[in-house]
Amino acid sequence: MVIRPEIAEDEACIGAVISAAFGNALHSDGNEAAIVERLRQDGQLTVSFVAVIGGKTVGHIAFSPVRIGGETGDWFGLAPLCVHPRFQRRGIGAALVREGLVQLRMIRAGGCVVLGDPEYYGRFGFESVSTLTYCGESSPFFQSLTMRGEAPTGDVEYHRVFSET
Ligand SMILES: CC(C)(COP(=O)(O)OP(=O)(O)OC[C@H]1O[C@@H](n2cnc3c(N)ncnc32)[C@H](O)[C@@H]1OP(=O)(O)O)[C@@H](O)C(=O)NCCC(=O)NCCS
Question: What is the pLDDT of residues 14-24, one digit of tens each?
Fold first, then answer.
């Protein structure tokens, strides 16, 4: 398996793997592929990595800037993450998260937030903190990982395409 940044030729395959993976997911709105496309168009797809096996795109992860307490800074949101259903539970999702976080550290990100299962994301160091809220509330599902400096406090907003798409 190779994990690498997306290139232009990957765009259709990324859309396809996102649709295949989220097609069965209970919490999905079915808009994840469109969100990634719009982030890309808006220049907000700061990190976009694919997992490739034998030339086939089997997974994808995206990170885009978030606003905290109304301010743009150096924090990012992990979303979406997906692995094609036929390739799940082989560590591909974990490898995408780990490589993505390495890349965020390389660009000197302050930290990262994610909305997802604490059992899954806790293994990468994400934890829920009361000082970072989502839609005005803290939740075990809304987690953060500080990479540099003091964690900011406030309500976290993903790029507007997440709510508009
Ligand atoms: C979530 C997802 C990316 C995980 O990818 P993966 O390659 O299967 O994950 P890994 O192989 O790295 O990790 C598998 C482990 O995570 C756990 N896991 C997998 N999906 C999980 C989920 N949705 N919630 C909690 N734990 C999960 C499994 O129990 C497994 O642990 P185990 O092997 O010890 O039992 C993949 O299941 C997926 O694409 N799901 C549909 C889209 C989605 O829900 N994305 C996440 C949005 S936050």
Answer: 999 999 999 87
pLDDT digits (tens, 9 = 90+) for 24-58: 777 788 899 999 999 999 999 999 999 999 999 99
59-98: string of b/e by CB count within 10 Å (b at 16+)?
Answer: bbbbbbbbbbeeeeebbbbbbbbbbbeebeeeebbebbbe
Is the CB of residue 91 below 6 angstroms from any atom belonging to ligand 1? Answer: yes
Is residue 109 within 6 Å of ligand 1 at its C-beta? Answer: no
Distance CA 63, CA 99 (A): 12
Q: Judge if the beta carbon of residue 83 lies within 6 A of ligand 1.
A: yes
Question: How far does the centroid of ligand 1 lie from the alpha carbon of residue 71, in Å?
Answer: 32
Alpha-carbon gap, residue 161 to 128, rounded angstroms? 24
Q: Give me the domains of the chain, ranges plus CATH numbers.
A: 2-164 (3.40.630.30)
- What is the Å distance from ligand 1's center to 121 Cα? 9
Render pLDDT for 55-68 as a digit per residue (tens, 0 to 9): 999 999 999 999 99
